[in-house]
Specification:
The chain is α/β, with parallel strands linked by helices. It is built from 17 helices and 13 strands. The strands form three sheets. The chain has a six-stranded mixed sheet with strand order 6-7-8-3-9-10, with helices on both faces. It has a four-stranded antiparallel sheet with strand order 2-1-4-5. Helix 10 links the parallel strand 7 and strand 8. Helix 8 packs across helix 9, helix 9 runs parallel beside helix 10 and helix 16 crosses helix 17. The termini are close together. The relative contact order is 0.13. Bound molecules: adenosine-5'-triphosphate. The site of adenosine-5'-triphosphate has 12 residues, from strand 2 and helix 5. Belongs to the ABC transporter superfamily. It comes from Streptomyces djakartensis. This is Glycine/betaine ABC transporter ATP-binding protein.
Length: about 350
């Protein structure tokens, strides 16, 4: 399916539209495990092998292969893929918890790969925070002391770190549990402590490695909403790993889909659903309710001479589901207008085609 314009569909207000300097910029990143791993990225012959072939030939696993992307300030950037696709390795390379084999990683313009041990420690302490699936809470410390732990390591005074910890405990909705111990909390609440701990140091970037996969579905949904709310409130740049497409769509401004260490597609949710790059992505997005993700830009059609052009107006980035009532209630087709320019029209037929799941199947 192609959007109903010649241009690639873009949401207004996406981070790219503001064209800021990226917070994280990754270029041609490789991580190869195994003997002589360093030879793989530079060898035309070895680069082209499948994982299996590379393993048979060299005993190496290429976990991340030639991946490039930028993360804009304030963006929620999701890395998604099946187990073994290289997500964790990729995200650990960003802070050099795993040493990359080749490529460039810039953090606010600074090449992370050039940082010495001291600088790296400083960056990890003050600029990045990681939230893991296993919360890693200290069992003998109360919630507030778990949250304050990183601040204590930084040498912040007790009074100051307690004040800050209580602030973020409230931010993540744990007021009243400050003095509880981790084993007195449910899984979801423990993960809130993990979130609070990550936020306490006021990092520039939060990295999440499948933080909610061990939680049951309802709690998981709660926590996703929590991340959306926190993002709205604190506006942090976030890189979020998941193998769950609905989580990716709910949270991500953009989603990078990985397969066997490579990028298959990187785009907004509506781009992935509206124009999947290949069958792999198509399979992933097959069951997504299209009306929840596609915007009017994807379903509008050019106005014909006989079309009434005095109907109501909507923007091209309104999600179909949100436009349905207005379109069906209108006597005339809805005009899709951006900056005063008529881009196309949407009538009952276009809406019903999406809702009935026919649209895009032709
Ligand atoms: N230390 C290591 N040594 C050798 N191979 C490794 C190592 N760490 C990861 N790999 C391999 O790299 C590939 C990517 O692993 P990675 O954990 O990054 O994938 P993932 O997408 O995060 O998977 P999961 O969701 O299961 O964690 C896998 O084939 C894995 O076996």
């Amino acid at each position: 399916m192609t959007p109903a314009t010649t241009e690639a569909p873009r949401r207004r207000d996406t981070p790219e539209d503001r064209a800021p300097t990226p917070v994280i910029s990754v270029r041609e990143l490789w991580k190869v495990f195994g003997p002589k791993a360093g030879q793989v990225p530079g060898s035309e012959e070895l680069r082209g092998l499948t994982r299996r072939e590379l393993m048979d030939r060299t005993g190496c696993t290429a976990a991340v292969r030639d991946v490039s992307f930028d993360v804009a300030p304030g963006e929620v950037f999701v890395v998604m893929g099946l187990s073994g696709s290289g997500k964790s390795t990729l995200v650990r390379c960003l802070t050099r918890l795993i040493e990359p084999t080749a490529g460039e990683i810039l953090f606010e313009g600074e090449d992370i790969r050039d940082a010495d041990a001291g600088r790296l420690r400083e960056l990890r302490r003050s600029k990045f925070s990681m939230v893991f699936q296993h919360f890693g809470l200290l069992p003998h410390r109360r919630v507030v002391d778990n949250v304050a732990f990183g601040l204590e390591i930084r040498g912040m005074s007790r009074a100051e770190r307690t004040r800050r910890a209580l602030e973020v405990v409230e931010l993540v909705g744990l007021s009243g549990y400050e003095s509880s111990y981790p084993d007195q909390l449910s899984g979801g609440m423990q993960q809130r402590v993990g979130l609070a701990r990550a936020l306490a140091g006021d990092p520039d970037v939060l990295l999440f490695d499948e933080p909610f996969s061990a939680l049951d579905p309802l709690i998981r949904r709660d926590m996703q909403n929590e991340v959306v709310r926190l993002h709205r409130e604190v506006g942090k740049t976030m890189v979020f790993i998941t193998h769950d497409l609905s989580e990716a769509l709910r949270l991500g401004d953009r989603i990078l889909i990985m397969r066997d260490g490579r990028t298959v597609q990187c785009g907004t949710g509506d781009e992935l659903v509206g124009a999947p790059a290949d069958d792999y992505v198509r399979d992933f997005v097959r069951d997504v309710p299209r009306g929840d993700v596609l915007t009017l830009r994807w379903i509008m059609r050019p106005a014909d001479p006989g079309d009434a052009l005095d109907g109501p107006e909507l923007g091209p980035d309104v999600v179909v589901k949100e436009a349905t009532r207005a379109v069906l209630a209108a006597e005339k087709p809805v005009k899709v207008v951006e900056n005063g320019k008529l881009l196309g029209i949407v009538g009952d037929e276009e809406i019903l085609a999406v809702v009935a799941g026919q649209e895009g199947d032709a």
